[in-house]
Amino acid sequence: MNIKDLPQPLGFFHIITNTDALHYGYWPENEAAMNIGDAQLAHSQLLLQRFIEPPARILDVGCGLGLMSGKLHQMGYEVTAIAPSKSLIAYAQQQHPGPDFINCGFLEDRPELQDNFFDVILFQESLQYFPDLDAVFYKAGQLLAKNGRLIMCDEVSYDNKTRQRSAVHTIQAIEQSFFAQGFYVQHHEKMGLQVTPTCVEILQGLQQKQQQMIDTFGQQAETQIEQLILEWQNLKDWYQAEIFGYELWELRFSPYEVRAYQVNDEQEILENFNQVFQENRSTEHWRWKYLDNPQGEPHASIAWDNEKLASHYSAYPLPLTIAGQDKQTYHVGDTFTVPAYRGVGRGQTNLLSRVVRHFHKSWCEGQIDFFYGFNTGRIQKLGKRFLSYVAVTPVKEYHLLSENNPANKSTRLMRLLKGYRIELREQSGSWADSLFVRAKQDYAMLITRHAAYLHWRYDQHPDFNYQYVLLKQWNQVVGWCVLRQTEQRLLIVDALCLKAHSSQLISALQEVLYNNATGCTELQGWFADNPGWWRDALLKNNFKQTTQFQNLDLCATFFGSQLNAADLADNFYFTMGDSDLY
Questions:
Q1: Residue 451: what are its φ and ψ, rounded to 5°?
Q2: Do the beta carbons of residue 446 and residue 321 sit within 8 Å?
Q3: How far apart are CA 62 and CA 72, in angstroms?
Q4: What is the C-alpha to C-alpha distance for residues 87 and 85, in angstroms, rounded to an integer?
Q5: pLDDT in tens, 221-243
């Protein structure tokens, strides 16, 4: 059998590379001078580092022309190699004898594919030929021997829109599927930059060896070659734009399924949350935070041991405004591993790390710039080690005692003469939307405090009662605060105002403390150091700045290169209400 009998475009690629290697090449950094043959060899060597030492039983899924299977046989492995094409199997048997080559599909029931038999299952650029990923990973879990490895390297898409033009799976679909079937990541590499030169090499080969391919395969090959040139040009553009990439995984199988929240999971979540944290969080609270959130569905990743919850990680989506542009972020919610499962895995393979990875792949990477939360030093150590977040800036508290409150009749009179008046409200309203449109230019980055957000965050909160203080000038809202009264403190949970009216809003708060907060002797709130004009207004009006009593820091995890910790520290405006504590 010769290359004329091969299905296209495999025959074309054989002429271009002058080898039976059909996979992408790998160009290590500072090795741009390598040709495609050397790069394909480097790719194979990188892959072999993930293998168990021979002897071991290998299943090569989608073995192509059989080159890799033949090499593995020569190294001392017991190799079963499969492909659904008779011509490919015939060529591989002739050119690379030794492995047990079988003409079949991976999902077929064949006696040669025995349960609990293979030490390594290899998918080398063959995953994209399987539309049903769940079926693939379920079958792989059945076929792997105890402590076996599933090794995959393939193209991935970082944009759902590519599925309309390509069979390549999205990274989210791949990771969600193998987690749901009980696999976890032992090793992972992103190799998009290192394989991108393959596109250039193939394009040059198609153009430079076009006549040789027409002479070999006939004139009808010309149209096929022209179509391939267009396809590879598109591939090159997608790789360079990082719409496509290439990734390598070494997966291991375990009895723990990691998946997204499903309806009624909250009963098990709450039971374990309350046990771990010795709290009594209600179903109403959970539904408010996750199910009733106007920004979208619950975002939670959960590890299960059959029907028992083992580990949990969640966040709720929030509207975000950066430099006037609408975005989205998440506030990290409930994170825990049930004590009985804290010894499962080590480092990046422990159960909490697995659910966090599932969360990042499902809802974060390529979708948001960052998410955030507020944590103490003890929990920060866990977060930095396993959860990929960094401390951004300490939380500052601001206090004003009633004895230092300068509110008096002359202050109120001056406010009235300038057209200011105070209104107390129990519910948010359209005034929040109109003010946010005007005020957002005075803030570089903040949670979008429009009416829908305020209604969910404060009006519908099942545990606390809040009150709005509206500052109006000539009957137009120029600022507002959200207050919650405790025994002796009046908490400034949230605030927003136009820059020009900041001191007047703080004066209004002081008057509410003086006249409307029975039994309260202190105003207290959290505020970021930015915008600086708001911080300065607080300090000029007799507020004292202290470190938050629990030593909380604003913490964040970043995705991509658009933002970093310094950007948040310098620009993100936050208050107590931007946490889930108040």
A1: -60, -40
A2: yes
A3: 15
A4: 5
A5: 999 999 999 999 999 999 999 99
Instruction: Please give the pLDDT value at position 29.
Output: 83
Q: What is the largest distance, in Å, between two alpha-carbon atoms of the chain?
A: 101
d(CA 334, CA 233): 45
Distance (Å) of CA 56 to CA 44, 66, 70, 79: 18, 18, 14, 8
Cβ burial 448-461 (10 Å sphere, 16+ → b, else e): bbbbebbebbbbeb
394, β-bridge pairs: 553
Q: What is the mean pLDDT of residues 114-136?
A: 96
| pLDDT at residue 410, as a whole number | 54
Q: Where does 406-466 show beta strands of DSSP type E?
A: 420-425, 445-447
Q: For 198-220, what is the mean pLDDT?
A: 93
Q: What is the DSSP letter of 170?
A: B
Grade residue 409 by pLDDT with cuts at 50, 70 and 90.
low
Cβ–Cβ under 8 Å, residues 524 and 489: yes
| CA 288 to centroid of chain Cα atoms | 23
Lookup result for tokens 């009264």: 485
Q: Which amino acid is at 375?
A: N
Tell me how far apart the alpha carbons of residues 439 and 442 are, in angstroms, rounded to a whole number. 6
Cα separations in angstroms, 101 against 66, 81, 89: 8, 5, 6
User: What count of other Cβ atoms lies within 10 Å of the Cβ of residue 233?
Assistant: 14
DSSP β-bridge partners for residue 230: none
DSSP state of 505: H
HSE of 71, CA atoms in CB hemisphere, 13 A: 13
Domains for the chain: give ranges and CATH numbers.
3-20+54-253 (3.40.50.150), 256-368 (3.40.630.30), 397-547 (3.40.630.30)
Residue type, 110: R
Say whether the peptide bond before residue 339 is cis (omega within 30 degrees of 0).
Answer: no
Encoded amino acid at 69, one letter: S
pLDDT band at 503 (very low <50, low <70, confident <90, very high): very high
Token code pair at residue 561: 């290169």
Q: What is the CB neighbour count within 10 angstroms for residue 441? A: 12
pTM: 0.91
Q: Using alpha carbons only, what angle is made at residue 175 by residues 174 and 179, rounded to the nearest 5 degrees? A: 120
- How far is Cα 533 from Cα 573, in angstroms, rounded to an integer? 12
Comparing 103-112, 274-283, 321-330, 409-418, the range with the smallest average pLDDT is 409-418
* Per-residue pLDDT band at 432 (split at 50, 70, 90): very high
Rounded Cα–Cα distance for residues 268 and 338 (Å)? 11
Question: Tokens at residue 157, please?
Answer: 């898409």
Q: In what order do the strands lie in the sheet with 489-497?
A: 420-425, 467-473, 476-485, 489-497, 522-527, 396-401, 544-547
The Cα–Cα gap between 450 and 457 comes to 11
* Contact call for residues 59 and 107 (beta carbons, < 8 A): no
Mean pLDDT of 494-509: 94
